[in-house]
Design a protein that fits this description.
Two copies of one chain form a homodimer. Chain A is α/β, with parallel strands linked by helices. The first copy, chain A, has helices at about 5-20, 20-30, 35-50, 55-65, 80-90, 110-120, 140-145, 170-180, 195-210, 230-240, 255-265, 300-315, and strands spanning about 70-75, 100-105, 125-130, 150, 165, 185-190, 220-225, 250, 275-280, 295, 325, 330. Chain A is elongated and about 80 Å long. The mean pLDDT of chain A is about 90. Chains A, B: InterPro entries: HTH_LacI, LacI/GalR-like_sensor, Lambda_DNA-bd_dom_sf, Peripla_BP_I.
Amino acid sequence: MKQSLSKRSTMAEIAAKAGVSIPTVSRVLHHRPDVAPETRKRVEQLLEEHGLIQGRAKKLLRKEHSGIVDMLFPGFDSMYSFEIARGVEEVIARTDLRLAISSTHHSTELEQRWMSKIQKSPSDGAILVLAHGEPRHFDPLHRHNIPFVVVDHGGELGPDTPSVGATNWLGGRTATEYLISLGHRRVAVITGPTTLPCSQDRVAGYRSALETAGLQINPAFICLGDFSPDSGYEQTNALLDLPEPPTAIFAGCDEQATGVYSALRARGLNIPDDMSVIGFDDVPTASIITPNLTTIRQPLREMGRVATTMLLHLINGEPLDSMRVELTTHLVVRDSCRPLDDAKR
Amino acid sequence: MKQSLSKRSTMAEIAAKAGVSIPTVSRVLHHRPDVAPETRKRVEQLLEEHGLIQGRAKKLLRKEHSGIVDMLFPGFDSMYSFEIARGVEEVIARTDLRLAISSTHHSTELEQRWMSKIQKSPSDGAILVLAHGEPRHFDPLHRHNIPFVVVDHGGELGPDTPSVGATNWLGGRTATEYLISLGHRRVAVITGPTTLPCSQDRVAGYRSALETAGLQINPAFICLGDFSPDSGYEQTNALLDLPEPPTAIFAGCDEQATGVYSALRARGLNIPDDMSVIGFDDVPTASIITPNLTTIRQPLREMGRVATTMLLHLINGEPLDSMRVELTTHLVVRDSCRPLDDAKR
């Protein structure tokens, strides 16, 4: 949190008046738990008198707040959700807030039901993972003055919606460039849901890498999946049934890649000798499957942490440095890709 | 929920008076979301007049409730916690309650801090996973009349503490019997934390199986671990350094077993040809590692569901059929164990 000079000198004044240290004043301002109740009350009063607490933050400190931050995510069935939740929890644990977690079970209907539920149960703010992206969808939150941050949105987000994502285009490009650098020319991709920008961007990065390398884009090599292992399994089978199958597969995510592994194994094919496979995410799964999965790491925990820190700023009525934050992806080389034999080129 | 005949006939009477169906009355009684607000109010009033809502449930329906059920678990770092949370969420999603999740990060201190936090922030009830088990530890919850159910407790639970677990002793026995049935005579176990009854019980089951088979218990074959992959890795190395290493390892849990796999692989040993490995839990990890892990399934999602259903009864002021529920474990045979060659016996 950046503090102006004048804010800092006011905090020093408050600290002196309250007979506490400046860090203690800061802790009260940021709702940290380790402050004695009487001290907190005294400092809050001084903060308010000096105009350092305004708007929503004022309400919050006046104990009209619920003390609850909500997180809505697709479900307890993916390491992706779990890793983001981990980051969110790490930040919430340092505050006096509690984290309420709800699952949409991948259903737009349940997501909308949650939106109407949230109007009745007070919430200080919300983290929405893979939420439906049309701006009007968030109207219930706007109406009730509930600040929120979206992680990996679906659809189109307006420019005013705070959001956190990863450099998916770059990640898709890096994955494909890596396979090309190993000599692969027939590179297939199995996508995530086509409604999700994070998935669209990865495929766009894939196309860009092929084009830059002067390789033709084969439409049969772009297979629609949905991030599930099942879709990885089915689409790999479809790819293997082509007259000229690919020599490398870029899976939409690590969990989908486990389905790719199963399909290849079921046909008696070896990874990476018969097929190179690269994933996306770098969830723990990637480093426990055999062979260990080469993948594009997106920093899911960090995304959860950054989104939550942004949300705490909003709850405090503080401005955000940026409405859209993209964290960088990078290649993690393990054992599932290898150079293409000259004979197969 | 069991209903006496008289309760059912009262509900029929209320349904008639309110001009709604009996299932609607039941939905109001059990806080299901799909009831129109005016209908809910009318039915609640009638339920109260007829004495069908009492005590805590009465308070709850009078909207003095927070609408929050808390879950405290060790951390977002294990599939074990995740699977239980999944079951809890499935039940909560069918109610108008929200689920607040906090992590102890495996720290007794953070657990105690949560206990003091909960006194300030109202909670309708709590699910405590692997909570510290001394009865006095739960005093803050008792004092504030917050009902709770413990899943897989640590320490000694009093007989009055509602809890859910699995048949850990039977599971440990089944795992060991299976290895013995494959001809293994030198069977080692890597334990979980020794403070946890679930872990102690598995080791007791291991001992029992060896004794029943007339095999000697070798103290060097009982290695202290803590459920982490690291402890699986370290203890496997210790076992392999013995003058006479085991031919089979019973890992404390599936995630620990991934560390056993890594240690064996680092020494160039093949699973199951050179060493049979069996796990415990049957989390998704078990069926994605190679070779797929033979394990003892404990129904973690079901445990979460059962604990939450018990908690909802308590919140409603209804008696429990049983204070302690143990769900059954069973053997899931996959590819990580094989009969011992005659030469090695």
